[in-house]
Amino acid sequence: MTPAKQKRLLKRFGPCPPGYTHQDLTQFLDLLYGMYSHHFTGEELRQIIVSDPFDLTEPPRSLKLVELAEWLEAILL
Which domain of life is it from (predicted)? Predict the structure, then answer.
């Protein structure tokens, strides 16, 4: 991931969610990859919409699964 992309993602989705450690986010990202990567094609993955698990508002914001994974990767770099 380029530094510019990392900066854009962090600006758009924010920094590390409060109360979560680097280890927590690493495990969550591993869980995401494990749940989806072996069952869907790349094109299908780009179409999946999920609720932001760190957004406590009602209703939580929606984002694409790949955006969630990229955001977590940007935080972890």
Answer: Bacteria
**pLDDT, tens only, 22-76:** 999 999 999 988 888 888 888 888 999 999 999 889 999 999 999 999 999 999 9
Pairwise CA distance, residues 28 & 5, whole Å = 21
Q: Give the pTM.
A: 0.86
C-beta of residue 25 within 8 angstroms of C-beta of residue 75: yes
**ω into 3 cis (within 30 of 0):** no
For residue 15, the number of C-alpha atoms closer than 13 Å in the C-beta half-sphere is: 3
74/77 Cα distance (integer angstroms) = 5
